Amino acid sequence: MLFSRIVAVFILFFRAGSGTIAHESYSDFAEEDNTPQLDYKNPYWCRSPSLTNGEMTCHSPRGGAYRSTLGTRCELKCDRGYRLIGKSSIQCLANRRWSGTAYCRKMRCHVLPLVPHGRYTCTHGFVVDSRCDFTCNPGYRIEGEHSRTCQHLGSWSGAQPVCSDTDPPKIKCPPSRLKVAEPGKLTAMVTWDPPAATDTADKSLDVILVGQEPGTDFNEGVHVIRYKVYDQARNRAACKFIVRVEVRRCLELSAPLHGYLTCSSDRNNYGAICEHHCDGGYELRGVSSRVCQFDRNWDGNSAECVSMEIKSDVKTVSALLDQFYEKRRLLIMSAPNISDPDYQLQNIMIQKSDCGLDLRHVTVIELLGSPPHETGRIRESLLNSEVTEGLRQAFRISRTYFSMVLLDKLGLDRERFITPMASHELFAYVDSFLLDEEERERLELHTDFCD
C-alpha cells in the first residue's frame, strides 16, 4: 500500500513536468480501500468479549449462541462487591471493534474511625460484605450498633457506636466500730482510714465523706458514716458503716441522809467523781468521794452524815477550834451578863433563826459574865474556863459591852458587830461574803426549808 502511494506521487510529478495538469491524471489511480466487507454471518467479527469479576449478556442478530458477530450488543454487569467502570452496554461495530470498554473495580467502604475507649475487628478489612465487630475497653459499654457491614454500594450499615462509661466505681468502707468514752467524758475520739475507691475506667476518683471526720470526738450514741464516689462519667457508688460511742455508767448514787452529792461529768458515767457533803449540823462518816469504775461499779463504800459531835470538855482553844475547821463557821456572842438588853434582844433573834444558821453552817458560842462567874457555852454544853478565856484573848473580845465576832471556816475573824443584828442582815452578810458557789446553790434549793 505504501509502495502504490509512492508510485502514484511519482507519476503525478512526472506528468506535471511534461506540461500536463496533475489532477487530470489523479483519477486514474484509486487509494486502496481497506473497509472490511460487512459480514453478519462471521461469528468472530469482533474479538470475543470478556469481563473479569462480572458478567456480560449479549444479544446477536444471529441468535443467542453468538457473542461477537457484527451488531451484537452486550450488557455488562459486575459481580457483587465490584463497581462497573466504563460503558454498561457495548456493540460490535463494522470496524471490528466494540463501541466501548469497561472493567469491574473492587468496591471498598471508607475506613471506619477509631472508637474512643474501644476497638473493632473486621472479617475482610473494608471491602463489601466485610463485617466489623466493636468491643469496648473494660469498664465501658457499647451504646449503639455492635457491628457494621460494608454494603454493596460502598457504605457502612448502621451508625458508628460509642463506648460509654456505665460501670460504677467500687468502694468499700471500713467495718463498723464500737468505742467506749474516755474516763470522765461523754465523747470518744474515733479514727479510721478513709476507704480507697477503684474504677475500671478512671484512675482519679473524687471520694466524698458524708458525716463526721475521723480523728474527732464523737458524742454518745450511733453515728452513720457514709462515703460516696463519682467517676468522670458521674457514675456513683456509696458505702456506709456505723460508729457507736458507748458511755459506761454506774447506778446513780443516792445522796446520804442529811446530806447531798456533787458529781463531776455526767454524775454516773465512767470516771465521774461524786463528793459527799453533809447538811449543817452533820458531819461525814466514811469516804468523802467515790469514782465510777470501768466495770460499772463505784469504788469504796457508801458514806453517811451523822450529827456533828462537839466536844466541849477540851482543854485548849485550838482543840475546840479544830473541831470546826473547814466544817463550820463560828459566831461568838459576848455580853457583860445574861441580863444585858442587847444580849437578850440578840438571843431572841438568834433562836428564831437557828434553822437558817444551820443551813449556812454557823455555830453559836456564847461568852457571858466575868470571872469568877464567867460562862462559856455551845447551846447547853459548857466550855472549860481556860477555853473561854482563850477565846477572849485570841479574838480580843471585851467583857464590858455586847459584841459579836463572825469567824469563817478557816477560823479567821471576818466581821464584828457591837449592836444586835436582825437575822436577815446577818444572813445577807454570810451569803454575800462567806458562802462559796456550791453553798449558794444548795442554799437556793432549801430557801423554803426553814419556813
Secondary-structure topology with pairs:
Elements: H1 2-17, H2 22-26, E1 54-59, E2 73-78, E3 82-86, E4 89-91, E5 102-106, E6 118-122, E7 131-136, E8 141-143, E9 147-149, E10 162-164, E11 170-171, E12 177-180, E13 187-190, E14 197-198, E15 206-210, E16 216-219, E17 221-230, E18 236-246, E19 259-263, E20 273-278, E21 282-285, E22 289-291, E23 304-307, H3 317-322, E24 329-335, H4 341-352, H5 354-359, E25 362-368, E26 375-378, E27 381-382, H6 385-395, E28 403-407, E29 413-417, H7 423-433, H8 437-445
Parallel strand pairs: 12-18, 24-25
Antiparallel strand pairs: 1-2, 2-4, 3-5, 6-7, 7-9, 8-10, 11-14, 13-16, 15-17, 17-18, 19-20, 20-22, 21-23, 24-28, 25-26, 26-27, 28-29
Describe this structure in words.
Helix content is 17%, strand content 31%. The protein is of the alpha+beta class. It has 6 domains: 1-34, no CATH class; 54-103, Complement Module, domain 1; 118-164, Complement Module, domain 1 (Ribbon); 177-246, Immunoglobulin-like; 259-307, Complement Module, domain 1; 317-445, Glutaredoxin (3-Layer(aba) Sandwich). β28 (403-407) and β29 (413-417) form a beta hairpin. The chain is rod-shaped.
